[in-house]
Amino acid sequence: MKRKRILNGVIKYVVLIIILVFLLFPLLWVLLTSFKTNMEAYKFPPTFIVKNPTFQSYINLFTVDNDFFTYYKNNFIVAGSTALLTTFMAIISGYALSRFHFKWNKWIIAAFTSAQMFPVVSRLISLYKILGDVNLINTHAGLILAIAAGQLPFTIMLMSSFYDGIPRELEEAARVDGAGRFGTLFRVVVPLVKPGMLAVGIYAFLLSWDDYLHASTLIQTDSLRTLSAGVALRYLGELSYDWSLINTISIVGTIPMVIVFFFFQKYMIKGLVAGAVKG
């Protein structure tokens, strides 16, 4: 029995290592290619060991190419603003969904759930028409509103699950002491759902950082483009690619997400797990 348990443990770890290597290999390949020359990047069969690593792509990116940092700055503006807006709206709407129960409540939840089933492409035409009517095409404000609208159904339901875990007696005690509805929400309830707010904010930031379809459809001016759309339209040519530079951009572009996961991973997991516990 002891040998069987050891064998099962070895098999389990071997399988986990294989899965980990499979998932991390693309990132490793991007990192290795960023240290190659463009000629070496085109070699076939490809070289897995870089014989003469070079930092030329990184030097060119930080000293010659100014467009990249324009896209990078725009990405921070859009992702950060979207995360703040989505978190604030989820706090308000999630509380309403959790505390105000009426006959249409189930239909609202069904609408939020069904909204997750439609791909982004299916709503781009209507989004373009609506934003065009209010003169928000080719603006960061319009892009932020469009991305936030797509994230709100899930984030509202997520925040609602956190509020469901807060005893109503706390709110009743606050109202007895003279606190109004908003005072109760922001002074009593919101401090208790900080893990949920953090989870929603990180989720919104990461999805906004990687957004491509909204940015490429709603933004036409090059100076307003975000990183994904800017890289696709600026650095991917019709006949040939500078793979070394493209992979360097990919590495630099993933740094904020790696930092977010490194510092906030345990808080995000704690928040998501806590939101699943009610009562």
Structure description:
The protein has a single domain, classed as MetI-like (MetI-like fold). It is mostly helical. 75% of the residues lie in helices and 0% in strands. The two termini are 41 Å apart.
Topology of this protein?
Blueprint: H1 2-34, H2 38-41, H3 56-63, H4 67-99, H5 105-115, H6 121-133, H7 140-164, H8 168-176, H9 181-189, H10 194-209, H11 213-218, H12 227-234, H13 243-275
Membrane topology: Multi-pass membrane protein
Keywords: Cell membrane, Membrane, Transmembrane, Transmembrane helix, Transport
Pfam family, one: BPD_transp_1
What attributes characterize this protein structure?
MetI-like fold; 279 residues; globular; mainly alpha
Could you name the CATH homologous superfamily? Answer: MetI-like
Mean pLDDT: 83
**Residues in helix, %:** over 70%
Tell me the distance between the termini: 41 Å
Global outline: globular
Number of strands: 0
The CATH topology assignment is MetI-like fold
CATH class: Mainly Alpha
Alpha-beta content class: mainly alpha
Reported CATH architecture: Orthogonal Bundle
Characterize the largest beta sheet: strand count, sense, and whether it forms a barrel: none
Number of domains: 1
Number of helices: 13
As a whole number of angstroms, the C-alpha radius of gyration is 24 Å
State which percent range the strand residues make up: under 5%
Which parts are unreliable, with pLDDT below 50 for 5 consecutive residues or more?
none
